[in-house]
Every structure is written in structure tokens, then in C-alpha cells.
Amino acid sequence: MAKHIVIVGGGLAGTIVGNGLCRQLGDELRSGEVRITMIGNSDKHLYQPGLLYLPFGRFREAELYRDQRKVLDRRVTFVIDAATNIDVENNRVTCESGKSYDYDYVVIATGSRIRPETIPGMEEGAHWFYDLDGARKMRDALRDFEGGKIVVNVNAPHKCPVAPLEITFMLHDYLKERGLKDKTEITYTYPIGRLHALEPVAHWTVPEFDKYGIKSETFFNTKEVDPAAKTITSEEGSTLPYDLLVTIPPHSGSQVILDSDLGAGGWVPTDKEKLLREGSTNVFVVGDTTNIPISKAGSTAHFEADTIIDNLASLVTEGQWARNYDGKVFCFVETGMTTGTYVWFNYTTPPNPGPPSQMLHWFKLAYNRLYWLSARGLL
Amino acid sequence: MAQRTKIDARGAFCPGPLMELIAGLKLIEVGDEIEVWSSDKGSAKDIPEWVAKVGHEMVGVESCEGYDSIVIRKAK
Predict the structure, then answer these.
(1) CA A213/CA A378 separation, integer angstroms
(2) Which CATH superfamily is domain A116-248 in?
(3) What is this structure's pTM?
(4) Residue A186 and residue A188: Cα distance in Å, rounded?
(5) HSE (side-chain half, CA atoms, 13 Å) at A373
(6) Intrachain domains A3-111+254-328 and A116-248 with the same fold
(7) Contact across the interface for B15 and A221, Cβ inside 8 Å
(8) Mutation target vs A (from B3, B13, B37; most A CBs, 10 A cutoff)
């Protein structure tokens, strides 16, 4: 009987795993020894990092999307039917339609989602760019903005840890281009006692903010937003007025993880090297879905997916484990509209960002297009 | 009886032990505890500083081999 691999989630992580498995298990797929099913909830694949550019008019909405069926290898059976339960005891995934799928191996790639509704007043009073609707509204708000106080507010946990800095630098450059810089004050708030989770990035940011006149407040965890008074208040007792509030909302994992009782907050307890659900030998977890204390980012998902592909293919064909995940993460960082840098690190090597350059910004712009090769497993 | 959740943030450069703690506190009940394992030497100072600022309770800090074990009780 064919071994059945089910991938739950059609985002970047799940898609790389599906395509990579097809590449490594070509013979087994052809002979019928293996079959692969992906369970997704949309026929479109969204390039999430492109949302950063949308409020500034530097990315067209149509450029953010591809048909998932075209991104995914034809040998993967693609089902659009949101998973409602993942039963790891009985090796079965059940979907909204009521249909269920038994598996030999499952890869949980259900991702994360923004939860602005968990903070009083945030939905009504804030803008964000982490989903299409939010990015559109932020684009409209920026178009109407004629100066005043902007607060860029960061909440924990959130995915793409460099995006809050990127949006701040890009806001600065955008306002300068529009001649509004002298009429605007930007204040950046961050949950911990420095400007970024990565200490070297935080140190690098201090003089950059000074150079651009960007103010900051650390140890700021949002308690509530008052849309009428246009103020934001922290758990630590600070209140800031704003004319435009740009927030990175807190995130949680997918509802199906909560409904399946697979992990608090929707994050699945996962072995940080094997990427197996704790207590399971046939349940892989990838990308934002894990509870591993590591960046929730496309890059993390990519390198984790590569590890899972090797291990799943090796388990199916050779009956043995191939290799462990070393915690590798690589992220480009936009430091304005014309410069960029990057950070990479793993479990044992701390990050050490280099000086920003125009070339690295161009690399990032190139990657915005090369992403589709990553998703296909070619890059 | 207070429940205790463990966060093993050893070797976590990003988002790091304090950010993991802040996220973890949102998932537990008032009176429950979180034990953070951190190999970042700054955590033994940063975490108590934030806990005092926001109004939770420090239960204790213990130096172990290569890491600190820091226990916090959610107070509000």
C-alpha cells in the first residue's frame, strides 16, 4: 500500500516541502509507492513580504499572488478544503467538508495569523500591513496623511521580526519624498528593552534612528488603543498620542491547531532539531506553526522545509534519519527605499549585520521576484 | 496549584528569551508560572527589570551549567 504524506497548509513552508518531496521521491511517486496530498484553504499563493511595499505604491496587488496549483508540483494532489482537525493519535486529518485523509506522515504547515482584536481598540484605531486588507487601508491612510505624530507599534509575538524596522525606515523615506518629514514625528515602540530582538541589530538601529530623528520607546507592550482620543497605552504605564498608528499586531497560530488541542496559542510543541512534534515520530511541524524559540519568517520556514524534505525522503526510501535542523535563518533588511542589509544566524552563530548598501537593497528587490523559485523548490 | 510552563530559549537569538516570555505570559492564567531557560547572560538582568516594570512577580533566578533558569509568576 502506498505511503501517504499529507501536508496541511499551502503557504511557503508547505509548498516547498511538497515540491521538494516530488523532486526527491520521483521514482516512488511514479511507481505508486508514495502519494502526496496538500490540504490548503485557498487557490492563491500570497507572497507575504510584498505587503511591506504595498502601502508605498511600490508593489501592485496582482504581483503578490500566483495560482497555488501552478506553484505546486503536478504530482501533489491539491485539495482546497480547510482542515478542521488533525488527529495525531489516529493519523487522520479532517476538513471543513467532512472529508478526512489518513496519513503515514503529516507535515503541519498551518502558519500564523494576526490578532489585532485581542487588544482593545486596536482594530478600530490602528493600521497594519500584515494582510492585504490592512495594507490597502494603510496605503489610503498614508495618501491622506499631511503630517503629525506617527507611532510604529510592535507587539509580541509577531512574524518577520525585521519588518517593523523596515516599515519605519521606509516611512521615513516616504515622508521625506513627500516633503512631510519636517511636519512629522515618528515614534517606534518595542516590547523589550532595546530596539530589536537581535542585539546587534538593536545596536545598529540606535545611531540610524538618531540620524533620521526617529524617536523610540522600549519596554512597551500594548494594553489598549483609544481610537477616539487617538492614544495608545502600554502595560508598563506609558501613553502616546498619535495621528497615524501603524501596528505590528500580536500573532497566534492557526485555529485548527487550537481546535485539535495541539498547542497553546496555536503553536505546536516541536523538537528544535528534528522538527517533529514532541511525542510523535510521524508528525513534522514547519514554519510559523512550531513553538521553537526562533524567528517566525519565510526564511526560517524555507530552511526548516529543506531539512524535512531530506528526512521524509530518507525515512521513506532508506528507513533512516538524514540530518538535523541547525537553526539557520537568513533575512534581508530594507533600511530605507534605496539601501538594505541582511542578517543570518543559527543556533550557535550569533547574527552580525553588515553596513547597508544599495546593492543589498537590489538583491532584496531581486528576491521579491525570485521568491517564486524558492516556493517551487528551485532556489 | 499553580501550573508551570517551561520555555527553553537557550541559543535563541531572535526573538530571544524576553520576547518568548512576553508571548508565553499571554497564554497562561494569572497565578501560573513560566520558567525560562536562557543562555543569554543579559536575561538575568533584562527579565527581572521588565517583570518589575510591568508588575508581574519574580519567583527566582538560578544559575545552571551554561544557562540561567528564571521563574516568573503572572500577576495580572
Answers:
(1) 42
(2) FAD/NAD(P)-binding domain (3.50.50.60)
(3) 0.95
(4) 7
(5) 7
(6) yes
(7) no
(8) B13
Q: Is B22 within 8 Å of A191 when comparing Cβ atoms?
A: yes
| Protein fold of A3-111+254-328 | FAD/NAD(P)-binding domain (3.50.50)
pLDDT in tens, A203-255: 989 999 999 999 999 999 999 999 999 999 999 999 999 999 999 999 999 99
Please identify among residues 24-53 of chain B the ones whose CB lies closer than 8 Å to any CB of chain A.
26-27, 42, 46, 49-50, 53
Residues of A in contact with B72 (CB under 8 A): none
pLDDT digits (tens, 9 = 90+) for B11-50: 888 899 999 999 999 999 999 999 999 998 889 889 999 9
For the segment A353-370, the average pLDDT, to the nearest whole number, is: 92
C-alpha cell at A303: 530552511
The proportion of chain A whose per-residue pLDDT surpasses 90, expressed as a percent, equals 94
ipTM over cut 0.90: yes
What pLDDT does B41 receive?
85
Smallest CA-to-CA distance from A356 within A332, A324, A376, A372 is with A332
CATH architecture of B4-73: 2-Layer Sandwich (3.30)
Q: Would you list the domain boundaries of chain A?
A: 3-111+254-328, 116-248
Amino acid A198: pLDDT: 87
